[in-house]
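Recall the central idea of this unit: under ordinary conditions, the amino acid sequence of a chain determines the structure it adopts. In this exercise we apply that idea directly, starting from the sequence alone.
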Amino acid sequence: MATLKASCLSASLALSLPAQGVELVFNTYLDPPYVIQDQRELAGVNIEVYELLKKHSNLDISIRLLPLKRAYLMALESPNNCVFAIERSQARESSFTWISPMYISRYAIYQPQQSFTPLSSVADLQQLKIGSYLGSGIGEYLESLGVEVDLAKTNLNSAKKLQRQRTQAWASDILSSAYVHYHYSLGIQKQGFDFYSSLRAIACNKDSDAGALQKLQTSLNQLQKSGKISKILASYEQQYQVDLGL
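Accordingly, the structure predicted from this sequence is:
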C-alpha cells in the first residue's frame, strides 16, 4: 500500500519531482479508506491515485491534509488549489473547474441491526433522522430532499452517533461503510438501502492555471483508459469485502 509522510494536519506533503513552473495544491481530508492517516503517513485510494497522477503528468503537485470544510474553502478561494476529491453535483458544478471522473461512489442508508425501518424508496428517508458529515455531498443531497440530516465532523463520527442512538440512520458510500465494519463493531447493518450514486472528482479553483489543469485532465483520462485507477479501487473493495450486490 502506498504511503506519504504527514507532518501535521495542515502540513504540505510534496513528492520531489521536477517543477513545471506552476504548483498545484491538492487539499485533501481524512476519509478512510480513500485517505487514511497512520501516525505520520497517509495512505488510501486517493493517495495512490495522487501518486499516479503526479508521476504521469510530471506536474508539481503537493498534497495538504485539512478538515473537509477548510479544504473545500481553500479550493474555492485560492488559485491553483483543488479539493481532492469530492462528489461532483449540480449544486457545486459552477463553483469549480472539474478534473473528472476519478471513480463512481455508491451510497446506502444503514440502520442499527436490532432496530430498523423498512425502506423501499427515497421518499421513505423522510421518516428518519440521518447522519452524514460536514462538507459531504450526500448530506447536501439528502437535505435537498427534505430529510433531517445530522452532520458530524467525519464519516466515522457519524456512524458512532448512530451507535449512540443520536440518529436513526447513517448515510455512507459503500466502500467507507465496509471499512468501518471491518475495523469497528458498532452494531450497524452490514447491508444498506442503496439509493444514490455520484462521481468523485478533483474540484479546482476556477482561476487556476489552465495549462496545468488541462495536463492533469489528460493524465487522468489516460490513467482511466489504462485501467490503473480501477485496479486500485478494486483492491480496496476486495480488502474490505465490499458487497457490490447490496
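The chain has two domains: 24-102+199-240, 106-197.
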